[in-house]
């Protein structure tokens, strides 16, 4: 059992390092890599992305169908993965590392064409809501500070906008607007 557990841990770390490599490439390459050219079902991409993220008992709740957008489905999937991973890692309402009570909500923005990803955790202080979108900022000593920064970079490519606010239950909410 110990070897199986160790192998599982190494496998999880390998996936994490692979994801971090993709994050660094996204920052380095910028907008020149993506030419959005396909109609993307954002609800389907969100559900697929959730299935690829280590959720540790967190729950996804899709509040309503998301719009369809002209975008690159791989990049949009990466955006959702980063937003979900961040919500699970930092969105625990009880204690860090205990994700059984974490609920991640996805829905349409009420005031613009777009969507949001929100959680029921402790939220992000108003003075840090812009800073969390900058590469290198992390509220966790072990974090890379790339998760939401990558999300912001991916969303910026097709001229989408990213805004960090407070979710209805008081956690963090990342709104992505300008989705067409």
Q: What's the average pLDDT?
A: 76
Q: What share of the residues does DSSP label as strand, in percent?
A: 15-25%
Query: Could you give the count of β-strands?
Result: 7
Element order: H for helix, E for strand: HEHEEHEEHEE
Overall radius of gyration: 16 Å
Q: How many H/I helical runs?
A: 4
- Specify the helix fraction band: 25-40%
Shape: globular
What characterizes the major β-sheet? Answer: 5 strands, mixed
**Ends apart, CA distance between termini:** 50 Å
> For the largest beta sheet, what order do the strands appear in spatially?
2-4-5-7-6
Low-confidence stretches: 141-146
SSE class: alpha+beta
Provide the descriptors you would attach to this structure in a database record.
180 residues; alpha+beta; two-stranded antiparallel sheet; 4 helices
Describe the structure in your own words.
The protein is α+β, with helices and mostly antiparallel strands and 180 residues long. 37% of the residues lie in helices and 20% in strands. A five-stranded mixed beta sheet has the order 2-4-5-7-6. It has a two-stranded antiparallel ribbon with strand order 1-3. Helix 1 (2-29) crosses helix 4, helix 2 crosses helix 3 and helix 3 packs antiparallel against helix 4. The longest helix is centred in the N-terminal third of the chain and has 28 residues, at 2-29.
């Amino acid at each position: 059992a110990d070897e199986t557990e160790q192998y599982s841990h190494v496998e999880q770390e390998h996936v994490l390092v692979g994801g971090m490599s993709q994050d660094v490439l996204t920052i380095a390459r910028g907008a020149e890599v993506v030419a959005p050219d396909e109609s993307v079902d954002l609800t389907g991409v969100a559900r697929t992305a959730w299935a690829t993220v280590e959720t540790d008992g967190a729950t996804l709740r899709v509040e309503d169908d998301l719009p369809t957008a002209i975008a690159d489905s791989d990049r949009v999937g990466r955006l959702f993965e980063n937003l979900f991973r961040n919500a699970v890692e930092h969105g625990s309402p009880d204690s860090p590392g205990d994700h059984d009570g974490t609920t991640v909500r996805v829905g349409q923005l009420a005031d613009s064409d777009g969507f949001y990803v929100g959680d029921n955790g402790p939220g992000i202080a108003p003075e840090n809501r812009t800073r969390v979108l900058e590469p290198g900022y992390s509220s966790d000593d072990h974090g890379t500070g790339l998760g939401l920064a990558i999300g912001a970079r991916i969303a910026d490519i097709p001229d989408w906008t990213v805004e960090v606010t407070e979710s209805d239950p008081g956690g963090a909410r990342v709104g992505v607007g300008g989705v067409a």
